[in-house]
Write a structure and sequence with these properties.
The structure is a homodimer of 207-residue chains. Chain A is an alpha/beta fold. The first copy, chain A, has helices spanning 8-22, 24-27, 34-41, 45-52, 67-77, 93-100, 103-106, 139-142, 154-166, 193-203; strands spanning 31-32, 65-66, 84-89, 109-116, 125-126, 129-133, 147-150, 171-174, 187-190. At the A-B interface, helix 1, helix 6, helix 7, strand 8 and helix 10 of A face helix 1, helix 6, helix 7, strand 8 and helix 10 of B.
């Protein structure tokens, strides 16, 4: 089920709420209120209540909402209630950081395959994953992998994205600072860390 | 000068426009229209025109805007019209990827110092930068560095952020999946790559 009316900004914040709820200390609470969640996340309770209003309410005022039910509800909306088998393409420094990053499991992402073009890397094992040659990308379909993380230089990003689309990948998390051209049915989210840094000075106080 | 009325969403998009304009092929154009820019970026021209309406207009309809002037104007709003001396704290896989990432220069960020706690890394040179012991963070003030990129494990992130605040850092780009508590005058932008991945399945077509 897709909730068409939820704005992108809300979808962007839901994983933040989910991460906050999944902190072990919070999972021990039977109920959680928007004020408590806002406190934990350092955000506004009204923003949380507004975001939640798109798909339900926040339980009884003053009591809050059943924590586990809330986790389930947000996970379902974000389609994170199933394990997503994910491939990593590009095992450079960034790729290595991604492979070792513990945060993906929280959301049900399981990186099960890793690919590179560098012969010195192919065949090596990192975190129980054998790095394979990118010519083997066609195996993704058989392995039921529909999500890929692209951590390669800009020059080869489009070519590799084309390959991924060909083998049935429906979502790409792209770390190359470029816009990938993909068919409408494929969703790309591009992370350019320089872009995030570029927002900082605007908000910094004049010193 | 700080333009108080510009919404955060617009500020988030301005670096994307700036990156698009700075592509060498576009800098060669005398004028650029919102339609052309939208085409390059794969975005909506009306969105661009709306964003630009907060601080001016997009030149003459049908002709567009002087490209170089536009670059200057956006850079000035984002306070990217000066070089920002930046420090990297944490030279693990992610830190290495950041050090080698070419995209920062585009926006005027110059990573001039790098720090780590690992004795095996301290003293090594990467990209002409000698990795120093984090006990030397107090040198940041003297080096006129007011921006830091934090690429360390979650456990030590808050402690290191406290150190950075103490030595006068006004902005932190934080890669640890946690909310840092800092004084109001310090701006933190947190990037949790798992969060971005967590948005993907929602947008992926049911297959």
């Amino acid at each position: 089920m897709r909730y068409h009316k939820i704005p992108d900004e809300t979808i962007q914040r839901l994983p933040i709420y989910l991460r906050g709820l999944l902190l072990s200390s919070n999972l021990l609470r039977q109920n959680i209120s928007s004020n408590t969640l806002a406190n934990i996340l350092g955000t506004n309770p009204w923003q949380i209540r507004k975001d939640f209003s798109y798909f339900g309410d926040f339980g009884t005022p003053g009591v809050g909402c059943d924590t586990k039910k809330l986790v389930k509800r947000i996970s379902k909306i974000l389609k994170l209630d199933v394990v997503h088998r994910t491939a990593l393409v590009g095992v450079g420094n960034l790729g290595l950081a991604i492979l070792k990053f513990p945060g993906f499991k929280t959301f049900g992402f399981d990186i099960v395959s890793a690919f590179d073009t560098d012969l010195r890397k192919i065949g090596k094992t990192i975190k129980n994953i054998i790095i394979e040659d990118t010519v083997k990308l066609k195996l993704l379909k058989k392995r039921k992998i529909d999500l890929a993380i692209l951590a390669i230089p800009r020059e080869s990003a489009q070519k590799m994205a084309d390959e991924l689309v060909k083998v049935g990948v429906a979502g790409i998390l792209n770390f190359s600072p470029c816009n990938l051209a993909v068919p409408m049915k494929v969703k790309v989210i591009t992370i350019d860390i320089a872009m995030d840094l570029a927002r900082l000075p605007y908000y910094m106080s004049a010193s």
